[in-house]
Amino acid sequence: MDRRNATSTSAGILRPEQFARYASLTRVACDPALEPWVENTWHLRWDLPAGTQFVSQTLPHPACTLSVELGHPRAGLPDDRVVVTGVVTRRFDVTLARSGWVLGVKFRPGGLAALAGIDVAGLTDRVVPAAGILPDAVVAGMRLLTDTDEPGAAAAKADRALLGMGDDVRDRSYDVVLRLIDDMLGDRSIVRVSQLEERHGLSTRQIQRLFSRYVGTTPKWVLGRYRMHDVVTALDDGYDGSLADLAAAYGWYDQAHFARDFTALVGVPPSSYRDRG
Q1: Is residue 207 within 8 Å of residue 196, measured between CB atoms?
Q2: Is residue 134 left, alpha or beta, with left meaning phi > 0 and alpha meaning psi from -120 to 50?
Q3: Which of 43, 108, 120, 252 has a Cα-to-Cα distance from 29 of 20 to 30 A?
Q4: Are residues 41 and 141 in the same domain?
Q5: Tell me: the pLDDT tens digits for 152-166?
Q6: What domain range includes position 91?
């Protein structure tokens, strides 16, 4: 697999039109030398009047993030503002208030584990200081970012902090993870992990171990999130057919099960989401 291929869906922030009224989000491509491990860098800024709040809701992706978060802190953020966020297994809600500035490096699934040589299973659903996970020089470089940096300049600083980490990384297991992810994203007919086992000649246990160490969650969870992202994207793009047909197309043959999964992740039933606004 060409590691420069996208390893993430286009699904992301829910209610993007409302979000854009409260905050500015910019995604920046990383330095080519970092592309084997990094999906992109994103820059978020907001400045709200006193007493105004907005709850940003984001669909979870199977990716770890290195970020610098300045300004009004989000709940659960440690005192150290250079943090690593492991894979979040539920909808990611953040209340935006007052003013804030965030620069995030979004790793590919397994990218942080491969680049840093760590097992990320213990990071799932956690936000922890980057110190102790990444080299001191990387953390020091991230501390150079300020809330006056524009997206391009901030991304360049983050790139410089990370450059060199991958010089000696030769991780064949990570290559396997990327090939599995490539199939999950590229072939919408894959709706069961058993299909990946047959295609790649791997056992259930082998795939589970790879995803636990490199991604921090199960292959079934990752596949389910990608297919749910497909569903949300289809609805955002104006799908007006049968919800039962849409569910079946992405692996749900029980519409009640589909409705429960959708509601648990998105917060409203699929019919309400489609009819919003």
Answers
A1: yes
A2: beta
A3: 120
A4: yes
A5: 999 999 999 999 897
A6: 16-162
Residue type, 172: R
Where is the domain boundary, 140, 162, 184? 162
The answer on 108 and 199 residing in a single domain is: no
Cα 12 from Cα 207, distance rounded (Å): 26
Whether residues 152 and 220 fall in one domain: no
Look at residue 201 and tell me if it is in a domain: yes
How far is Cα of residue 159 from the mean position of the Cα atoms in its chain? 18
Are the C-beta atoms of residues 66 and 127 closer than 8 Å to each other?
Answer: no
Residue at 212 is within a domain: yes
CA nearest to 39, candidates 111, 86, 113, 106: 106
Q: Burial, 103: exposed, middle or buried (Cβ in 10 Å; 0-12, 13-18, 19+)?
A: buried
- For the chain, give the number of residues: 277
Number of alpha helices (DSSP H) and beta strands (DSSP E) in the chain: 11, 8
- pTM, two decimals, is 0.90
The answer on 126 and 205 residing in a single domain is no
Q: Any idea which residue has 């709200």 for tokens? A: 48
**Residue whose C-alpha is closest to residue 27's, from 43, 15, 14:** 43
Is the CB of residue 191 less than 8 Å from the CB of residue 251? yes
pLDDT of 170 strictly over 90:
no
Using alpha carbons, list the distances in angstroms from residue 173 to 138, 169, 170: 24, 11, 9
Residue type, 268: V
